[in-house]
Design a protein that fits this description.
The protein has 75 residues and is an all-beta fold. 0% of the residues lie in helices and 56% in strands. It has one domain. The strands form two sheets. The protein has a four-stranded mixed β-sheet with strand order 4-3-2-7, with no helix packed on it. It has a three-stranded mixed β-sheet with strand order 1-6-5, with no helix packed on it. It is globular. Bound molecules: zinc ion. Zinc ion binds next to strand 3 and strand 4.
Length: 75
């Protein structure tokens, strides 16, 4: 079992279907220097809040604490 990594971060974008979070662990591809964006369901809720979600990382066991704030773009 991989060690669980907790990541606290701000959501980049939210809409009625999903929220987008940039992952500090995953790269876009093997040769990319850009970080991957993970998508989580938003429960049709655009309010500022904190969401706890299991990470979608393939190679890491992550838990995300996602802050949805005034900086999070509504799309
Ligand atoms: Zn990841």
């Amino acid at each position: 079992m991989k060690t669980k990594i907790t990541i606290e971060t701000e959501a980049k974008e939210i809409n009625r279907h999903y929220l987008l979070v940039e992952c500090p662990m995953c790269k876009k591809s093997n040769h990319s220097k850009f970080n991957k964006i993970h998508q989580h369901g938003s429960n049709n809720n655009l309010d500022n809040r904190i969401e706890h979600r299991g990470g979608h990382c393939v190679n890491y066991n992550t838990h995300f604490i996602i802050h949805i704030t005034d900086n999070t773009k509504r799309s």
